[in-house]
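Hello again,

I reread your note about wanting to compare the complex against the isolated chains. To keep things tidy I'm splitting this into two emails, and this first one only covers the full assembly. Below are the input lines as submitted, including protein chains and any nucleic acid or small-molecule components. They are followed by the predicted structure of everything together. The single-chain runs will come separately.
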Amino acid sequence: EAQVTQNPRYLITVTGKKLTVTCSQNMNHEYMSWYRQDPGLGLRQIYYSMNVEVTDKGDVPEGYKVSRKEKRNFPLILESPSPNQTSLYFCASSLRGSESNQPQHFGDGTRLSIL
Amino acid sequence: AQSVTQLGSHVSVSEGALVLLRCNYSSSVPPYLFWYVQYPNQGLQLLLKYTTGATLVKGINGFEAEFKKSETSFHLTKPSAHMSDAAEYFCAVSESDSWGKLQFGAGTQVVVTP
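Full-complex prediction:
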């Protein structure tokens, strides 16, 4: 089954304690993205990756890091989480647009609470 | 730069009535436009997309949207609402056919009343 898998689904942690949210896709997609979803703001892109070792900032990259060492994985790293990073996070993946009927496949989300 | 505006953060519609969700965009190039639906505690699911060609696009679950370049709009409609349509709907735009960078609207929460 084609899917994007995020872990954990829920996490409550404290300010300053480094955390990593993993994302893995099994569709051999080149593109992967991280979004955060906040009420009234929709989804805002944090980082995206066009292929292995190729990443770029989205609209709200401050306080986040990513890496793309393998095609299937795209972890999101919060080196020193702060309460304003409390949010619902989504990972997504896609083929190049012209090669796909599905622009982006989304994971089920990770709800982070930073106390 | 691209941006998306969804008019109305909440819409209430009676079962069987027309669903109309409004989306306006700005883009410096011909855009690619999308509507996604999000059910509670789930990720986003693509309803439909406009790339090129026919401006009236049909999607899943009876939804359709019309691309109107002169109005920079991409409104979503469904002739007859069903209780299962209760969800949050997002309009999104991309200026590139890579589709790796989507700009989303703020979302519209749809409530369906019996």
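For quick reference: Chain B has a mean pLDDT of 91.

B.
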